[in-house]
Design brief:
284 residues, mainly alpha, TerB-like, 3 domains, 73% helix, 0% strand, elongated
């Protein structure tokens, strides 16, 4: 936790301005500490006279993603071993090793600090992404996915996700839609991503039919359409999502290469949901 600025600000504020000066000094010191944290964490600009390079923007996006994950994990209070394991799982999905893994761990640890400057970091995310909708959406969905990794969403996590969405320029309605899609995606993956999923021995045909119907409903939710949608609507939603989540297109727009595997998993999830709906409904 950065407190040097607060101590210095409080000391000189009280020295020259008494109690009111103390308050003002604490405020200035807090701003100094936030700026210092951003600089030390790599969330800094590239200096005067030039813009950040592609590699610098990708590095900033990467570190910000894990820092905000740490902030979401801390939303419930104390970060549990399970939540730390979730971060490690995400690092495994990205195939992070050595210095890359250490950078992700350091960023995650920064995000857990009580004075983590969430708003400032989100501003840096918007800058590093060039304000591109697809990248900002990927960043938000990454946080939603991490929050849902244990299969549930705590109210405090939802509250923080709303702050993140707002900071990135998404409405509350847009976030809630993504939360519904992610919850359905989690169930869809748990069921195997194909019609019927994993069925146990001795289960009744009625139970299996109900389970399969629920899985089909989740597939529709993954695509963000209602179960009454016709073939054209389903295909339109599928193409839109694939266009927004295509790994190569995201990479071309500045997605860090470390996150390519996560993008591939997301596009495969969309593909599996679409394939299931086509198979069951007989859509061409």
């Amino acid at each position: 936790m950065q407190i040097f600025g607060k101590i210095l600000g409080a000391f000189f504020g009280f020295l020259f301005g008494g109690p009111l000066g103390l308050v003002f000094g604490l405020f200035l010191g807090h701003q100094f500490d936030k700026a210092r944290r951003l600089n030390q964490s790599g969330f800094n600009s590239s200096g005067f006279g030039r813009g950040p390079s592609q590699a610098e923007r990708q590095n900033e996006f990467f570190k910000s993603a894990f820092a905000v994950m740490g902030h979401v994990a801390k939303a419930k209070g104390q970060v549990t071993p399970e939540e730390i394991q979730l971060a490690s799982t995400m690092m495994e999905r990205m195939n992070l090793h050595g210095e890359q893994r250490k950078a992700a761990q350091d960023a995650f640890r920064d995000g857990k600090e009580s004075d983590f400057p969430l708003s400032d970091v989100l501003e840096r995310v918007k800058i590093s992404s060039g304000g591109r909708f697809d990248l900002l959406q990927f960043f938000l969905e990454l946080q939603v996915s991490a929050a849902f990794a244990d299969g549930s969403l705590h109210p405090s996590e939802r509250q923080v996700l709303h702050k993140i969405a707002q900071g990135l320029g998404f409405s509350a309605e847009q976030l809630e839609r993504r939360l519904q899609m992610q919850e359905a995606a989690f169930r869809f993956q748990q069921q195997g991503g194909s019609f019927g999923g994993h069925q146990g021995h001795g289960q009744s045909s009625g139970w299996q039919q109900a389970s399969q119907q629920n899985q089909l409903g989740d597939a529709y939710k993954v695509l963000g359409v209602s179960e009454s949608a016709d073939g054209k609507e389903v295909k339109k939603a599928y193409r839109k999502l694939m266009n927004e989540h295509h790994p190569d297109k995201l990479m071309a727009k500045g997605l860090p290469p470390e996150m390519m595997n996560v993008a591939k998993e997301k596009s495969q999830e969309i593909q599996n949901a679409y394939d299931l709906i086509k198979k069951v409904k007989g859509f061409k």
